[in-house]
């Protein structure tokens, strides 16, 4: 489902950040996998150990300090897939009693395995929605760029017309006009 969310996207779109403090789709994908690494370990501990103490990770510090931009997205997507498929075998054999096993966070909040699993599903859903929002922001950004381009183009054409006007009064400038005309042809 993560792969489906990014199907057909260009590298530029994957690296686009809607705002300086917001993640790109590339960064979101690395985060989802890092979160999965940490949560898979939590899920396993709840099943294997007796009311283990769970911990969470500082997602912004990870994104900031682990150089998310240079990490290999393909490897991370593969890692995500492997984590989910290895957990699947455990889930297939899960008893009702096991799904009620409990883990405890440092603030004493208690969660059953079933609840923790539900949050896993929700986490990916939330980030897929976020990816869709970034895609929309990118399209808006592109549309904005096109607008300013057509304005620049219009300004250029007006300047062209002025030059053409002057050429009819100043025949000597014809080579300059030819240069400008070929410029427009390349741009179009
Ligand atoms: Ni998250």
Essential attributes:
single chain, 188 residues, mainly alpha, Four Helix Bundle (Hemerythrin (Met), subunit A), 8 helices, 2 strands, elongated, disordered C terminus, binds nickel (II) ion
Q: Which class do the helix and strand fractions yield? A: mainly alpha
Summed up, the domain count is 1
Strand content: under 5%
Mean pLDDT: 84
Number of strands: 2
Helix content: over 70%
Named CATH architecture: Up-down Bundle
Please, could you describe this protein's structure?
The chain has 188 residues and is mostly helical. It has one domain (2-146): dinb family like domain (Four Helix Bundle (Hemerythrin (Met), subunit A), Up-down Bundle), CATH 1.20.120. Helices cover 72% and strands 3% of the residues. It contains eight helices and two strands. It has helices at 2-6, 11-15, 25-48, 59-65, 73-92, 96-99, 113-169, 174-187, and strands at residues 102-104, 110-112. A two-stranded antiparallel sheet has the order 1-2. Helix 7 (113-169) packs antiparallel against helix 8. The longest helix has 57 residues, at 113-169. It is elongated, with a radius of gyration of 27 Å. The two termini are 39 Å apart. 14% of the residues are buried. Nickel (II) ion binds at residues 31, 35, 59, 123, 127. The site of nickel (II) ion has 5 residues, from helix 3 and helix 7. Residues 2-131 form the DinB-like domain. This is DinB family protein. It comes from Paenibacillus taihuensis.
